[in-house]
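W.,

You were right to be curious about this one. When I first looked at the sequence I had no strong expectations either way, so I just let the prediction run and decided to look at it fresh. Below is the sequence, 370 residues in total, followed by the output.
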Amino acid sequence: MCAKKVVIGMSGGVDSSVAAWLLKQQGYEVIGLFMKNWEDDDDDEYCSTRQDWLDAASVADVIGVDIDAVNFASEYKDRVFAEFLREYQAGRTPNPDVLCNAEIKFKAFLDHAMTLGADLIATGHYARVRESSEAGRFELLKAVDASKDQSYFLHRLNQAQLATTLFPLGDMHKTEVRKIAAELNLPNAQKKDSTGICFIGERPFREFLNRYLSFQPGPMKTPEGQRMGEHVGLSFYTLGQRKGIGIGGTKSLTNSEGNHDAWYVARKDVASNTLYVVQGHDHPWLLSARLSADQASWVAGSPPPDGAFSAKTRYRQADMACVHQSLPDGGFALQFEQAQWAVTPGQSAVLYDGDICLGGGIIASASPAD
């Protein structure tokens, strides 16, 4: 019987490199595929595409797998970047990594892999897939390494995608992955993990957005209506932001140490082009007990029953107890036991039942705690 063919996305990073090696050790016929998703400033100091390709090709040579490159820049611009800009222009804060996984890594990439004769695809994500007790159904699970779990970013994956996907690192800790890379003498064994938004990299974010968005300065006010200055454009701020607002403390509010409390972005009023700021981390305007979400996507293909679950409203956050309620428009609402801080429209609210990622949606609005 011929070995199953697996096409794995190799980014030039340590995770996908070790994942490719593991698959080969497990007896699969492994083909690496490097995805190029961004072209606008390929010669820019912040763009590492060429070096990433060299790293991926070098690793493939060391572990003995074939590798090819594919250009998804057009699909990325149409499906991910255009939506990214629309959301920012509307005053929301999108998460392009969620959309990139759904539209590129598990759609365009999956389709391309199948044309290469793949039986399965794989990535270096930290997550797990499990066939459920119901035959032919699949569940998306959190990774064993809770600190690296990426199920939040993968919550839009559907049954067809999960049925053909392998996550070789799901049962491993990052320290083990680094150790394997070092033992194999992989050329990228010491390479730092990539950070920042996938296509922006480490560049100054405001400078980048300036190239693509129209913006209009406007008033910066407190909830009481006191004008505190002028913002440079609503798109450049996110709820809960503390740095880069441009105002200092005042004598009107001090913390227990006698220092002036910091200012935070609390709301955006797109209609009046007003940015509202508050003083103090626990100001009521920064706390929400309930949210509503739209663009719902459920791993099982249908929403879970109304009732008690847990959820994340941002990636680096512990699961928080909540009550899920389906809404007539196809969206859902979450009511939290404890008020959540800086719940941000445009970000993803992702629902969990223990280790099982059920799916989620895009946060449309949030209600104050009281």
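Here's what jumped out at me. The longest helix spans residues 96-115. And, maybe more interesting for your project: The two ends are 64 Å apart (CA to CA).

Coffee later to discuss?

I.
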